[in-house]
């Protein structure tokens, strides 16, 4: 039977390509290295950004437009991270518009009517999957989309430092990326733009707005944390947002945990009580071989390097491997520093800080063999020293810095290290210090253990993962989405 309209052909599938614009030099903030190659939370900003698209089900391919002098550096990032969706790393142009055109040239082999393209700043590493999905969904109905958030500040227009106008704030939005287009739309707009001798634009939606004025540009609700790392303070803020980003922690199913822990060996220091015992129990439940060490059960002093080495060697000799090392051991001594005796000071420093240092040093050779992970624990008091907590707060802050430093040191060796930051948790150590506290005001050690195990099974490194009764980042995202509607 000849083909006819009785059996219409299915519409061709649409392909979505993410173009990551990484052409910045870093000179604006006095850096010798481009911002996108700076490390935050154990990875370069570029890798964090690329990983968003690697994990995005609706994105088929990723193209990186890199500062010409650092193409090989970006290629190394892609190769080391195993980013399979990145098909090419190409040199960018001398302007944003030139770089976009180079990307369009590189995509010339793709059909313009069935290809979507998302242009995203490499230095926006905190992009969420929700925003990516909304952009792709919107391109089913619109030929161009932008991402924006409401302006919380009043915007003024000035001429020679004198206010000339104050636009109505309710109509204003702060633009972000991605900016998404049907490939045919952005191609045609640029063709017209280059014919204009006075062509100049700071972003791609502006090009469509000016040179394809009949094309509606739909606005997708962005998020406050989808910030652009531009100034030195932005690096600090982005790092803190990654620390808070417990929402980024994968949540594995029980079946996943069974599969990933079978045949693995875990060593848990402080494994007799509280969080350590819960982590050990949960890992054992899902098939791991767990070795628990503590002062009370095995007379193991975590501040003694020789005893740490002996514990790790015992686990390795018994199973032939060490995949995970967890240290939950700690002491909490409350009181004014001027009233604390030297022996108590020494104990706090040895157990809360030197022990993680010695454990990290002794664990590294074993974890390098298995591509394993070290997991440490901090406290919410690490962010700001509190009166009568000077020793505890400062040693927990040191543990955070140790985690981030070692994530950089070990990145080339395939060894990961992360730090769990639980909210106030019901443990024997806390009960001893504070007595019984009202029900419902504390985290359960079991919840902390579940998050800890999922972090161990993830590919995260250099993260300080908050565990809270309410996720603060998710709450901010929810508020930002609602405000943008």
UniProtKB/TrEMBL annotation:
UniProt xrefs under Gene3D superfamilies: NAD(P)-binding Rossmann-like Domain, Spore Coat Polysaccharide Biosynthesis Protein SpsA, Chain A
Enzyme class: transferase
Pathway(s) this gene product operates in, as recorded in its UniProt entry: Isoprenoid biosynthesis; isopentenyl diphosphate biosynthesis via DXP pathway; isopentenyl diphosphate from 1-deoxy-D-xylulose 5-phosphate: step 2/6
Residue numbers marked as site, Positions MEP for the nucleophilic attack: 169, 228
Reactions the enzyme catalyzes: 2-C-methyl-D-erythritol 4-phosphate + CTP + H(+) = 4-CDP-2-C-methyl-D-erythritol + diphosphate
Keywords: Isoprene biosynthesis, Nucleotidyltransferase, Transferase
Enzyme Commission number(s) from the entry: 2.7.7.60
UniProt GO MF annotations: 2-C-methyl-D-erythritol 4-phosphate cytidylyltransferase activity
SUPFAM superfamilies per record: NAD(P)-binding Rossmann-fold domains, Nucleotide-diphospho-sugar transferases
Function: Catalyzes the formation of 4-diphosphocytidyl-2-C-methyl-D-erythritol from CTP and 2-C-methyl-D-erythritol 4-phosphate (MEP).
Protein name per the record: 2-C-methyl-D-erythritol 4-phosphate cytidylyltransferase
Source species: Nocardiopsis flavescens
């Amino acid at each position: 039977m000849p083909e006819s309209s009785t059996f219409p052909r299915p519409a061709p599938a649409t392909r979505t390509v993410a173009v990551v614009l990484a052409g910045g030099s870093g000179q604006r903030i006095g850096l010798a290295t481009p911002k996108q190659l700076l490390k935050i939370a154990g990875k370069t900003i570029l890798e964090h950004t690329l990983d968003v698209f690697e994990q995005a089900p609706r994105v088929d391919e990723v193209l990186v437009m890199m500062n010409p002098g650092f193409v090989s550096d970006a290629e190394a990032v892609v190769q080391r991270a195993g980013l399979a969706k990145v098909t090419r790393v190409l040199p960018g142009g001398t302007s944003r518009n030139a770089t976009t055109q180079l990307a369009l040239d590189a995509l010339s082999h793709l059909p313009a009517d069935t290809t979507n393209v998302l242009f995203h700043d490499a230095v926006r590493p905190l992009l969420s999957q929700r925003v990516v999905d909304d952009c792709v969904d919107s391109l089913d109905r619109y030929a161009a989309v932008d991402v924006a958030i409401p302006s919380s500040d009043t915007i003024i227009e000035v001429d020679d430092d004198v206010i000339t106008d104050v636009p109505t704030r309710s109509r204003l939005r702060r633009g972000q990326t991605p900016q998404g287009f049907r490939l045919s739309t952005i191609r045609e707009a640029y063709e017209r733009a280059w014919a204009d001798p006075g062509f100049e634009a700071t972003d791609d939606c502006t090009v469509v707005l000016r040179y394809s004025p009949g094309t509606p540009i739909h606005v997708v609700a962005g998020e406050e944390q989808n910030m652009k790392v531009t100034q030195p303070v932005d690096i600090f803020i982005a790092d803190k947002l990654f620390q808070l980003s417990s929402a980024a922690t994968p949540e594995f199913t029980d079946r996943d945990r069974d599969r990933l822990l079978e045949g693995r060996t875990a060593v848990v220091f402080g494994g007799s009580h509280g969080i350590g015992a819960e982590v050990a129990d949960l890992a054992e439940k899902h098939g791991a071989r767990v070795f628990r060490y503590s002062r009370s059960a095995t007379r193991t002093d975590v501040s003694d390097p020789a005893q740490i080495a002996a514990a790790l060697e015992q686990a390795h000799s018994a199973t032939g491997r060490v995949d995970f090392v967890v240290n939950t051991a700690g002491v909490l001594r409350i009181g004014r520093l001027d009233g604390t005796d030297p022996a108590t000071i020494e104990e706090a420093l040895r157990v809360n800080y030197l022990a993680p240092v010695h454990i990290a040093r002794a664990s590294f050779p074993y974890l390098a063999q298995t591509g394993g992970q070290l997991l440490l624990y901090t406290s919410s008091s690490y962010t700001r020293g509190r009166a009568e907590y000077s020793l505890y707060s400062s040693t927990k802050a040191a543990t955070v810095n140790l985690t981030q430093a070692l994530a950089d040191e070990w990145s080339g060796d395939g060894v990961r290290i992360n730090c769990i930051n639980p909210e106030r948790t019901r443990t024997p150590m806390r009960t001893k210090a504070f007595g019984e506290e009202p029900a419902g005001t504390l985290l359960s050690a079991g919840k902390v253990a579940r998050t800890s195990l999922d972090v161990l099974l993830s590919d995260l490194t250099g993260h300080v993962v908050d565990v809270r009764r309410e996720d603060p980042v998710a709450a901010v995202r929810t508020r930002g989405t609602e405000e943008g509607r």
